Amino acid sequence: MFPMSETIAQLLLSWYRQNARQLPWRGSPDPYAVWVSEIMLQQTRVETVIPYFQRWMARFPSVAALAEAPLDEVLRLWEGLGYYSRARNLHRAAQLIASHYGGQLPTERAALEKLPGIGRYTAGAIASMAFGQDEAALDGNIRRVLARLFDVALPARSPAGEARLWELARQVLPPDEAGDFNQALMDLGSSICTPRSPACLVCPLTSLCRARQLGVQEQRPVLSARSAVPHLTVTAAVLRRDSQVLIAQRPPQGLLGGMWEFPGGKLEPGESLPEGLRREIREELAAEIEVGEELGVFEHAYTHFRVTLHAFFCRLRAGEPTALEASQIRWVTVDELAAFPMGKIDRQISRRLAQLHRPKGEPRG
Asked: 75 and 157, same structural domain?
């Protein structure tokens, strides 16, 4: 620690003891709960995570319960939280912990980082908060607080900027209080040292903040310019046969891995929507379809691109659908769709189908 660090720690921990957020995973003696919360909180707001965390812990209260659960059930419980690789990694890591660590999360940072889905930040957070180790952490909130407190003019996400912020995170860490200190930094960034219009007048560190002294707090951290977000036009087939529709499970790796969807794909240049959908079904399922009435248009923004999806009712013209690109395909009734984990757009399609399938006069659930 350098000289100012002790003052920073004293001021921040004193503020934290009076203002700490009451969160369901805090104060838990169970490292598993800390781990689950940290994975859920990656790129997701606290208020969104809380109900998911509570449902998750009710269904999977231990590493063993999660390790034994089928992946489909894990993904279904995660549905709507996004970034589904997090759920797959939690499941796989739980299986590794059960088989290699006697069902107990390893306590050392190096061992934690070897588990799927646990990187440098998450390992530091778990080691400090769950096991009381003197390990630094650097999430978005902590990055912003430190960049302002020490007026770091390097781009925060550049290799040099990242290295400088990790160095500062280690230097200000008070011995034997790393868990509370890391959480205090997170809470300060969430409630006071916010991205826009930080509440500097009530910040416990305002007298020490170099960016505040220079009047550049809203220019810190330095962010790199964002590139334009690509926009994709996508089609999907609601392929009907008797009282059933066809759904396909995406491959286990990649975007929405393991989730179920209505088959289709990205439109190629020069194609009409029906042409693109017929080509996609031919390539994915080795089947020929007739494209009928449009069910709806659905929009969604992912991290690096946006999608406009056009869903059409379709019927088979030739061939029996075969899973050429999907892990598996299945014919299911509309009522059965709710049991299959889906991404946001496909869930919207399934709900639209459920509305159309509901007998007239039947109340909505």
From this structure: yes
